[in-house]
Amino acid sequence: MTERPKTSHEPASAREPIVFVIDDDASMRRALNNLFQSVGLAVQVFGSAPEMLQSKLPDVASCLVLDIRLPGVSGLDFQTDLAKANIHIPIIFMTGHGDIPMTVRAMKGGAVDFLTKPFRDQDMLDAVVTAIERDRKRREVGKIVANLQALFETLTPREREILALVASGLMNKQVAAEIGLAEITVKIHRGHIMKKMGARSLADLIRMAETLGIRRAKPSGVQT
């Protein structure tokens, strides 16, 4: 496993992953807590979904080991609630009474795995490693997009318009004709765009635009 805490007693930091567990069975919570701590993973256990939501969760790579059958909000319903709230934490379901429709719904909802009790410790650990790595990658992509968005916000309306046209594959001369500017003016704008966005090349700039989902728009007539 990667980026494990140095000891099982240390609090999760910005670099350490954590496993959340929701199960109304106290003995299962203890067993999973011991399992994850035995391999150096930080863990927090809860007896219900509302209990987890009331807790202040650390902003680190994480995953949720979630029992299907819970008092009140079921595991599957909680998965749906998290998605609606735009909370994207990888989920590993566990149940003592699994069935095919339940499994299908869980996996379609984006679950990493669906384990039937009693499960092998190694199967659970493998699923947790996969889930944490998925969340880590999602967070890395999110940071990249957020940074690009911040740079994009520094562009003027005209620069944003030109960026969209350049990203669509138009040359400077074509961009100039489309929005009614001199070609040299477009070149100057493009230079400013490259500098503000921190792009090393045109290809780099186009990749940035694609990451941000920037699409070609009709000329707006906005002047700098």
Description:
The chain has 224 residues and is α/β, with parallel strands linked by helices. It folds into two domains: 18-140, Rossmann fold, CATH 3.40.50; 154-212, Arc Repressor Mutant, subunit A. The chain contains nine helices and five strands. The chain has helices spanning 26-38, 49-53, 75-84, 100-108, 121-152, 157-167, 172-179, 183-197, 202-212; strands at 18-22, 42-46, 62-67, 91-95, 113-116. The protein has a five-stranded parallel sheet, sandwiched between helices. Helix 6 (157-167) crosses helix 8. The radius of gyration is 24 Å and the shape is elongated. The N and C termini lie far apart (52 Å). 28% of the residues are buried. The model is unreliable at 1-14 and 219-224 (pLDDT under 50).
The 3D shape can be described as elongated
Specify the CATH architecture of the largest domain. 3-Layer(aba) Sandwich
* Total tally of structural domains: 2
Q: Which percent range describes the beta-strand content? A: 5-15%
SSE series: EHEHEHEHEHHHHH
Return the average pLDDT rounded to an integer: 87
Number of contiguous helices: 9
How would you characterize the largest beta sheet? 5 strands, parallel
CATH top level of the largest domain is: Alpha Beta
Instruction: List unreliable stretches of 5+ residues.
Output: 1-14, 219-224
- Judged by helices, strands and strand pairing, the structural class is alpha/beta
**CATH fold type of the largest domain:** Rossmann fold
Q: Helix coverage percent of residues? A: 40-55%
For the largest sheet, list the strands in their spatial order: 2-1-3-4-5
Query: End-to-end distance, in Å?
Result: 52 Å
Give a count of the beta strands, DSSP E runs of length 2 or more. 5
CATH-level-4 superfamily name of the largest domain: Response regulator
Radius of gyration: 24 Å
